[in-house]
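In response to the reviewer comment on reproducibility (Comment 2.3), we provide here a single inverse folding case reported in full, input and output, so that an independent group could reproduce the run without further information from us. The structure tokens appear first.
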């Protein structure tokens, strides 16, 4: 997996770059198919905009932005957004929201006890 860090109109220190690499590698725990991560910081005045692009196999791309005053904090917020996107995408792949089979639906609609059927018959008389 490649991790690229780029800065426009400024720079981030080596400790912050190491922090970014360390945190970015943790994305592999959520989704193993990540092939490339691009982190871009855009410094304008006293504001910093962090942008994270994550490329995964089969043309699945994830993008997040965050703007603030500190590069590391902006990165953390943008990374949190990416983590959420990846988790949501992986959940869709696993399809946990699959409908119940028809036989389970039919069984749930049937009366559970014979007493329920007898009570209905007694009301009619």
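Designed residues, in position order:
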């Amino acid at each position: 997996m490649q991790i690229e860090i780029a800065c426009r109109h400024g720079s981030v220190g080596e400790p912050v770059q190491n922090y970014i690499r360390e945190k970015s590698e943790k994305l592999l725990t959520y989704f193993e198919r990540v092939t490339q991560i691009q982190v871009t910081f855009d410094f304008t005045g006293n504001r910093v905009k962090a942008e994270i692009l994550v490329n995964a196999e089969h043309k699945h791309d994830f993008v997040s932005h965050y703007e603030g005053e500190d590069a590391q904090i902006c990165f953390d917020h943008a990374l949190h957004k990416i983590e959420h996107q990846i988790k949501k995408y992986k959940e869709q792949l696993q399809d946990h929201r699959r409908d119940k089979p028809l036989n389970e639906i039919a069984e749930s609609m049937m009366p559970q006890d014979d007493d329920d059927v007898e009570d209905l018959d007694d009301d009619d008389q």
